Automatic annotation (TrEMBL):
It comes from Marinomonas posidonica (strain CECT 7376 / NCIMB 14433 / IVIA-Po-181). PROSITE patterns: SBP_BACTERIAL_3. Pfam families: SBP_bac_3 (PF00497). One of its GO terms (biological process) is amino acid transport. One of its GO terms (molecular function) is ligand-gated monoatomic ion channel activity. GO terms for cellular component: extracellular region; membrane; outer membrane-bounded periplasmic space. Residues 1-19 form the signal peptide. Residues 38-260 form the Ionotropic glutamate receptor C-terminal domain. This is ABC-type transporter, periplasmic subunit family 3. Residues 38-261 form the Solute-binding protein family 3/N-terminal domain. Keywords: Signal, Transport. It comes from the Bacteria. The keyword Cytoplasm does not apply.
Amino acid sequence: MKKVLIAFAAMISATVASASDINLWEKSTLNDILTRGEIQVCLEAGYMPFDMRDKKGNIVGFDVDIAKSMAKAMGVKVDLRNTAWDGIIPALLTSKCDIIISGMTITAERNLKVNFTDPYIIVGQSILLSKDLEGKVSSYRDLNNSKYTIATKLGTTADYATKRYLSKAKVNLFETESEGALEVINGNADAFVYDLPFNAIYGSQNSDKLVHLDTPFTYEPLGMAIRKGDPDFMNFINNYLAQIKGDGTYDKIYNKWFVSDAWMKNIQ
């Protein structure tokens, strides 16, 4: 009799677990995407070479190609939703998109609001320096002085890093990367702090006025962000990232945007 009761309890437990799994899947964003036939991606166009507009007004970049590749693996279309950076996490949390793929650094503060996938690229903060300071400033430590004015983008990890490592300098915050970097070119700031990929490209385009101190002084893994409580969606994305890093797809996309500069002639 005891064995019968144990077997019956095990059967009931398995039934409950099975029902719970079905309920989780029905609520999963991945299920919504497959049912809808479209993945809705939040990003902010303006971060070279991750997300930007070409001369035809289309949003292109490293993140876009990753998103399109993932959508192809799902058998669905992509809806790119250009979203201001300060509203991008709220947009995800209110279901205005399924996922954020927008060069977002994984931080503890953000992780309290969203769940991050495994990192899909590693970057760090570097410095675009005024040509007038070439030879006088060799690292971020030299800029940590009240006589210097530093420009960076509001609400980004560059903002936090600048305030942490350059606390003695005057810091001016801007809505976009280009506005901040332009301050240095126009002589209104001594340096611009931002992610290395953007600085490398912008610096090469303006090498007559800017010096790129290209040794990163922070370590920043970038991840895709999804809403909490969705193990099925997280499992798919992480397995997908592992697959494309192993089969050469990731390298092909990476080389297109970070090794070659052929794409630059088509950007606004």
